[in-house]
Amino acid sequence: MSPAAPVSRAAPDVAVAPRRAESEAAVAAFAIGALGAVYGLILAIVEPGELLADGATSFALWAAVASGVGAALAAALGYWRSRSLPGQLWRRSLPTWKLTANTLSVVIVHTVLAFIETYVIYRLIGLGFIGLPVGPIWSIVMMAVTVGLTAHLVYLSVSRMDTQRMSSLLRTFIAFGVFTAMIIAPEPDWWKVHFSHLGTFHGELSSVFFNGTLIAGGFLVTTFAVYIAHDMTALVADGVLASPRSPRIVSALFVVMGAAFAGVGLVAVDVNRLWHDVAALALAAMFLGMLIAGPWLLRGLPRTYFVWSWTILAAVVVSGLTFAFGAFSLTGVEIVVFVLIFGWISLFIRYLGVAGQSAPPEVTPRSPRRS
To answer: Is 308 exposed, middle or buried (0-12, 13-18, 19+ CB in 10 A)?
Structure first.
């Protein structure tokens, strides 16, 4: 009988983490959902007979506000407590200011995303119930369910945050915010001007969504840089990445990219064209710089990553040339580059995640025993 294999202590700890996060998410959902019920009762008293989704101050808007507040509470609590979970312990060694900034960006993004998603969902439901008033019972129940469910999903999201999840969160957040701004823009032909024209409708919800998405997305990219630096440092230590300076340089480029991204939203093009263009050019420069310097900074990543990088770079150049020769509109070029930037980020994170995974060892077939 062969000796018993040693028992690994890592597996139980990793298994405990999701159970703990699930339990805490359920408690947060009940507690914040109860606050939502109280909020629904107050709304029914103050604004009796509020329409579901019609009008400037519909139930949809109040539910979106409550959902955003509930998301902020759940995100702050969940992200802070997740520092003690397996795989998240490295965050405890971060400087206080950096940990605070990361927490703030994660909270802001989840708050804005919860507000947008709740508002859009209720507006879509409202298309089938035009003119429907929300009574007191429905106000309490719907608000409790909306806020509680939001808190549960947000708590789980922040508790399991890693580079891959943050990349998915960034893509989802940007897509929801920008597409919502495009759909509800007061000028349906905004695209005839340029992409940044979406942020010039001051006082309109569409510009709030567009500029707010860019600002919050920029903050998230700076937080993204911290996770990337951690992952790349581990790859350098394992001998996967050749350049020991790559974590510091790449994370710094992402910080500048995030600041430039936020700058595009902070300074609308009709407020100060110069600073808006400077921020946009800085964003493009950081993106192109990482594509061009990739073979030196990221030597050690799979070869297919560099094939994709040069393909994306070629697409950016072709888009610029077609605009220069009048075959492509400015809005079209901006949208193409916008999509390529986030497409590249997804590819980069994906290949960064698989870079340290070694191929399974070959199994040499054993020759049959001779009797």
So the answer is: middle
pLDDT in tens, 183-228: 888 888 887 777 788 888 877 778 888 888 888 888 888 888 888 8
The rounded distance, in Å, linking the Cα atoms of 119 and 111 is 12
pTM of this prediction?
0.77
Out of 104, 137, 161, pick the residue that ends a domain: 161
Residues in a beta bridge with 301: 299
How many residues comprise the chain?
371
Its domain, for residue 41, covers 20-161
| DSSP SS3 for 133 | strand
Q: What is the average per-residue pLDDT within 135-157?
A: 93
Question: What 3-state DSSP class applies to 48?
Answer: coil
Q: Residue 299's CB: how many other CB atoms inside 10 A?
A: 13
- Separation CA 253–CA 229 (nearest Å): 11
135 with 220, same domain? no
HEC-encoded secondary structure of 78-95: HHHHHHHCCCCHHHHHCC
Q: Measured between alpha carbons, how far is 157 from 25 in angstroms, rounded to an integer?
A: 10
Instruction: With respect to residue 371, please indicate whether it lies within any of the assigned structural domains.
Output: no
> Are 156 and 250 within one domain?
no
**Residue pair 309/351 in contact by the 8 Å Cβ criterion:** no
- The residues near 343 (Cβ < 8 Å, ≥ 6 apart) are 312
